């Protein structure tokens, strides 16, 4: 399997875990206006960068599925499952966290809507699901890599 795909996926998952476990909990400790002022550029930046990162991982997963035809069945199935889960995370993202992220990145920190915290918390819950999907996908990919090197 492609070590580059493993590295790219690992850094994607690590980034999502960092946001989930460290960045957002820290932002919730800030006063509301500071929280909004900080989250707005973060949401905007990640909204621009992450789609390319997800697409690269998914596209490389598809390519690896194609090129893995000569490998053992177990490795192929792990790769297919990995790619399917990454595809699921993309669709899930487009239906859940992305629209919320777009709303957050366009908020006026000095005049936020009353439900802004609910939006943030909903994003956090949906992101936790996405991180779980990605962690399982990474585990499958890494398992295939280990099996392939035996």
Q: How large is the count of helical segments?
A: 5
pLDDT < 50 runs, ≥5 residues = none
Write the H/E string, N to C: HHHHH
CA-CA gap between termini: 12 Å
Structure classification: mainly alpha
- The total beta strand count reads 0
**Roughly what percent helix?**
over 70%
- Note the overall shape: elongated
The total tally of domains equals: 1
Nearest-integer average pLDDT:
92
> How large a portion of the residues is in β-strands, by DSSP E?
under 5%
What's the main sheet like? Answer: none
Kindly provide the radius of gyration, computed on alpha-carbon positions and rounded to a whole number of angstroms.
17 Å
Task: Write up what this structure looks like.
The chain has five helices and no strands. It has one domain. The mean pLDDT is 92. Helix 1 runs antiparallel to helix 5 and helix 2 runs antiparallel to helix 3. With 150 residues, the chain is an all-alpha fold. The protein is elongated and about 60 Å long. It starts with a helix and ends with a helix. The longest helix is centred in the N-terminal third of the chain and has 36 residues.
Short structural description:
By secondary structure, this protein is mostly helical. It is built from five helices and no strands.
Secondary structure elements and pairings:
Elements: H1 3-27, H2 32-67, H3 73-95, H4 97-105, H5 116-148
Helix pairs in contact: 1-2, 1-5, 2-3, 2-4, 3-5, 4-5
Keywords:
single chain; 150 residues; mainly alpha; 5 helices; 84% helix; 0% strand
